[in-house]
Amino acid sequence: MPFPKALVLIMGLLTSFRVFTMEIIVGQTYPVNETSALKEIEQRVKRVGWNKLISQQRIMEAIDLNPQRLPRAHVNKTRIYYPFYTLEMDITDPSGNVLYPKGFKYNPLDYFYMPGRVVVIGHEEEDIDWLKRNYQKGDRVITAGGDVNKISNAIKTSVFKYDKKMRDRMGVVSVPSIVVQKKNAFEIAEYHLIDIK
Fold first, then answer.
1. Domain count of the chain?
2. Helix or strand or coil: residue 93?
3. Pairing state between β 140-143 and 118-121
4. Which residues pair with 121 in a beta bridge?
5. Torsion angle of C-alpha atoms 42, 43, 47, 53, degrees rounded to 10
């Protein structure tokens, strides 16, 4: 079907009006004498004492007012832990239908695989020495009450703090321990430091 000639004519007129529009200035104009927003942001960033701010933040992170510590393992042993969770609220779909009710129990390891190992150590110097000997690239390191920055500097990787929920989530009850996933459970190897020095 051919394009209607009237439509082509109207489109041509609209296009020509757009091309030949004029800029009309009403009133007196003045030059704008403002710095650009980007330059203003850059200037403000330069005024912040970043080194002091970062140092304060590191100090606050290092100060652990309520460290979660774990006892030492008394023997070398390996055990299996099945992490079951209970939902604290209903899980609904966008329409509000309940998919999983509050109180539903499940094992998250039935649904995902945790690659690599999790290494949990204590807060003493011998924990860091043990970690240096046993650390493997890719390990996730958690400390129960230790100095995160000191340990991180010793092994050149991120270190995380052990918290209250972790005991229930991973079943780690003594240090040092290495956790790996085996099917839908965690295999937790606990090490008695005196036996392995």
1. 1
2. coil
3. parallel
4. 143
5. -10
The separation between the first and the last C-alpha atoms of the chain, rounded to the nearest angstrom, is 89
Rounded Cα distance, 179 and 140, in Å: 10
**Which range, 6-10, 17-21, 127-131, 145-149, has the best average confidence (pLDDT)?**
127-131
- Tell me which amino acid residue 23 is: E
Please, is 191 exposed, middle or buried when counting C-beta atoms within 10 Å of its C-beta (0-12, 13-18, 19+)?
A: buried
Instruction: Determine, yes or no, domain membership for 166.
Output: yes
166 vs 119: CA distance, rounded Å: 13
> Phi/psi at 146 (nearest 5 deg)?
-85, 175
Of 172, 148, 168, nearest to 160 by C-alpha is 148
CA 159 to centroid of chain Cα atoms: 12
Q: pLDDT digits over 85-108, tens only?
A: 888 999 998 899 999 999 999 999
Query: Which structural domain range is residue 118 located in?
Result: 77-196
pLDDT at 14 over 90: no
